[in-house]
Design goal:
- The chain is of the alpha+beta class and about 675 residues long.
- Among the domains are: about 140 residues, Glutathione S-transferase Yfyf (Class Pi), Chain A, domain 2 (Up-down Bundle), CATH 1.20.1050; about 60 residues, no CATH class.
- Helices cover about 55% and strands about 5% of the residues.
- The protein is built from 26 helices and nine strands.
- The strands form three sheets. Strands 3-4-5-9-6 form a five-stranded mixed sheet, with helices on both faces. Strands 1-2 form a two-stranded antiparallel sheet. Strands 7-8 form a two-stranded antiparallel sheet.
- Helix 1 runs antiparallel to helix 2.
- The radius of gyration is 25 Å and the shape is globular.
């Protein structure tokens, strides 16, 4: 391991990772070596003749796989953010290796015997709350991963986990490859009618990169897809692009149909082996929602309001499209286009008017400024830190007393080597690492509107919300005060993890916040009150449909992970699961499931409802900020102390009640979305 960068001391600022040194060939040897280190430490625990204790058992186990966690964490980060060539294929090897190792120690009878003894005696000892939580979480993790099974069932569990470990990255790779394989070329300038100049320039830049300088290239990247669907007057091309996106991985070379069926079947088998009726029952045991009934209770509670509003919105759009262009039929690929046109007519507001005020650099500075006003944080750009790509910026984050908080990486723009969407990760969680409690290194990635030769990166309003959302996750990771990595930062119940992110989006719609950063990229003019007023008046435009869309995805997710029967036809299953939310006829060949990475390759299986669950939390919590003042220091300090810093130390509902003084009220969300008066 002498030449492997994962095991060489580098004098990087703040112990940041030497990304320039990492090569594809380094990962497998580093993982093998870290597993040897982990196994040796676990063997020491098992062979120890002393009475099992927190120090010689729980703490030793917590630190036994810290090398492995970091190496694998770097791999999965790069897998999503900058995966090219042979690198992404490594997932098919790495995932089974790590899964096998996890099974090895989770199913180790002697190890579990010692953990159980510490757990059984925990209340007789004077443990602090951090140590006690780690004991309880460790014991439960072993139970939920098969430690109490008989030998035969343990072997079955191993086999199931091995299969699953290959399928999830396969699903992701198929989606990325399918997305990258689609190209819509335009050679006739008339086919660009309606598109904003920025979208045309970006498409031209994309074409030039492929040596087709006289054409324009549109792809399924959101920064390309959304402008086209919103502004293109060419209905036939909108249909083409829409069907390509909706048909991702449904048939053809990158078909995910069989992958989905296998993942669902295996997860149900795993749950039943562990004593649960379904995968959803297994998952929800460790969620705020607690059970399937409560999830459906939330979805159904919001459904009536959302469906009624959404149906009214679609009817209005249909009538508008008829009167404006004589359309006798209205399809999903018409939705975004006529929605934008109607918004212009109703509110004299073109969303593109906002872009000049949302230069990407200014938006980042704005979210920093708001964090500073709320939590007294300081951000300093670091120039001497290695990153995974030249577009990535890195910042040191300090507290008001200049004490070090952590490191923040920001990666904003699309690449062919980067998956679509936006996400936050931690490269190093706050907590014990190499014998010391270390401060976190966090990042967020997105695929926002890139710069062109003509203009810098100018974001649309939704992209600004995305920046604030992911930054909220980063704050959750950065401001953690946990003692151990596994109970720190964003390691909380999944339906609580979106509260810190979603609440940050609220500041984007506030005048006092907008004026801090929304400045014209050429003139420096602060966004005028007239535009802010238009934003506010149109803020709930289409909220019914958007809410219904999220509910539909929540119902679909729950259907997959509560259904115990074999699924013959994915399209048929999906249509049945989402029937009550449909406002348009189904389009043959189009499914959500086949590219639904959240629930088939991410962490949201039986958990997509979490977005709506957390929306209730964030709407209710932000009402507190509105009451006290959006930059109120005391309210912000309470949110930091009770929510952001606590990690998974206490039950989320207890944390929320400590901040709000009561349980959340669903009416807050309905009020914010203007679904009730």
């Amino acid at each position: 391991m002498k030449n492997n960068p994962f095991f060489i001391e580098y004098e990087q600022p703040f112990d940041s990772l030497p990304f320039d040194e990492f090569k594809t060939e380094h990962f497998l040897p580093a993982i093998d070596e870290s597993i040897k280190i982990s196994n040796a430490k676990i063997e020491n625990i098992c062979s120890c003749n002393e009475e099992p204790s927190f120090e010689n058992t729980i703490l030793e186990l917590e630190t036994s796989h810290e090398d492995l966690q970091r190496i694998v964490g770097v791999y999965w980060h790069l897998f999503g953010a900058h995966s090219e060539g042979d690198f992404k294929q490594l997932a098919q090897k790495i995932s089974p290796i790590v899964s096998s190792h996890t099974n090895d120690y989770m199913l180790n009878a002697e190890l579990f015997k010692k953990i159980k003894k510490v757990y059984d005696n925990r209340l007789d000892m004077d443990y602090n709350e951090h140590d006690l939580k780690l004991i309880e979480d460790t014991h439960q993790s072993f139970i939920r991963n098969g430690a109490s099974l008989n030998d035969s069932d343990k072997e079955n569990l191993r086999n199931l986990d091995q299969e699953l470990s290959v399928l999830s990255p396969k699903f992701s790779n198929n989606v990325l490859d399918a997305q990258n394989s689609f190209e819509m070329w335009i050679s006739d300038k008339e086919d660009l009618e309606g598109l904003p100049e920025d979208a045309i320039n970006a498409a031209s830049e994309s074409a030039k990169k492929k040596d087709r300088g006289n054409e324009w290239l549109f792809t399924l990247q959101m920064s390309s897809y959304l402008p086209f669907m919103t502004y293109s007057k060419k209905r036939n091309l909108r249909e083409k692009l829409f069907k390509a996106y909706g048909g991702l991985c449904n048939g053809g070379e990158y078909d995910n149909t069989s992958v989905i069926k296998k993942i669902v079947k295996l997860k149900h088998k795993r749950a039943q082996l562990l004593g649960y009726k379904s995968h959803a029952d297994f998952v929800l045991e460790r969620r705020m929602a607690e059970n399937i009934e409560n999830v459906y209770g939330l979805l159904d509670n919001l459904y009536e309001y959302s469906y009624k509003a959404a149906k009214s919105e679609i009817k209005e759009l249909e009538e508008y499209a008829m009167s404006k262009d004589g359309l006798n039929s209205f399809f999903q690929w018409d939705l975004m286009y006529y929605k934008e046109l109607l918004k212009k007519d109703k509110y004299a507001f073109d969303s593109e008017e906002l872009r000049p005020y949302f230069k990407a650099e200014n938006v980042i500075n704005g979210v920093f400024d708001i964090a500073s006003r709320l939590y007294d944080l300081k951000f300093k750009k670091l120039e001497n830190v290695q990153t995974w790509h030249s577009e990535v910026d890195c910042f040191e984050v300090n507290d008001s007393d200049d004490s070090h908080i952590g490191i923040l990486y920001i990666d904003l723009f699309p690449r062919s080597t980067k998956r679509s969407g936006a996400w936050m990760n931690a490269l190093l969680e706050n907590g014990l690492y190499k014998g010391k409690v270390r401060r976190p290194h966090v990042l967020f990635c997105a695929s926002l509107t890139p710069s062109t030769k003509e203009k810098p990166s100018l974001l649309n309003y939704r992209e600004v919300e995305t920046v604030f959302h992911e930054f909220g996750h980063c704050l959750h990771g950065l401001l953690s005060d946990g003692k151990y990595q596994s109970t720190s930062g964003t390691n909380v119940f999944w339906d609580f993890v979106e509260l810190p992110s979603q609440i940050m989006e609220n500041w984007v719609g506030e005048s006092d916040a907008l004026k801090l950063f929304a400045k014209h990229y050429e003139t420096g003019e602060v966004i005028p009150d007239e535009l802010i007023e238009k934003i506010k008046k149109s803020s709930n435009y289409g909220s019914g449909y958007l809410s219904l869309r999220q509910l539909s995805l929540g119902y679909l997710d729950m259907a997959w992970y509560t259904n115990l029967d074999d699924v013959e036809d994915v399209e048929e299953f999906e249509n049945k699961a989402t029937e009550k939310t449909k406002l348009f006829p189904s389009v043959p060949g189009m499914t959500v499931s086949n590219s639904f990475g959240h629930i088939f390759s991410g962490g949201y299986s039986a958990g997509y409802y979490s977005y709506k669950w957390a929306e209730v939390l964030d709407a209710d919590a932000f009402e507190k900020f509105k009451e006290d003042g959006i930059f109120n220091k005391e309210t912000a300090a309470s949110f930091r102390d009770n929510i952001l810093s606590m990690g998974g130390l206490k039950h989320p509902m207890d944390l929320y009640k400590k901040f709000r003084g009561r349980e959340p009220e669903v009416e807050a969300l309905l009020r914010r979305d203007d679904l009730i008066k």
